[in-house]
Amino acid sequence: MDQSVSPYLIVIVLGWVLAQGLKYVFAVIKTKKIGNFRQFYTSGNMPSSHSACTVGLATVVGLTDGFGSALFAIAFLLASIVMYDAVMVRRSSGEQGLAIQELIKLGKTKIVLPRAAKGHTPAEVVVGAALGVVLGLVVFFATK
Fold it and tell me: Smallest Cα–Cα separation from 91: which of 45, 54, 131?
């Protein structure tokens, strides 16, 4: 393997760029508007870029260093925590944020609306993870 090019970093960057790009494409298809550029940097929606990056990294680590290695175990743990957090924690806090926004609007107060960060549905995380596996395989064989 060419040591000047890190497959670990390549898969992370590709995972992020491709997943965020797909979010934009899906938003354009859904809204039929091409100007929704926020999809390139916002959290939430299909697919999960966090899942794509961490699973892609775990895939490259497993293929390069072995699926029995300590490094793969760490990468697997990281990916698992990130995906669990996206569905269970960030999604829940995002729904709570939306509820708080609604209460503020109904109360007609002058309180500034807080930002409600979106998490992910299980499907968004699974698609992001699948994208990560595919990218991990491609990057591994392309940099081998």
Answer: 45
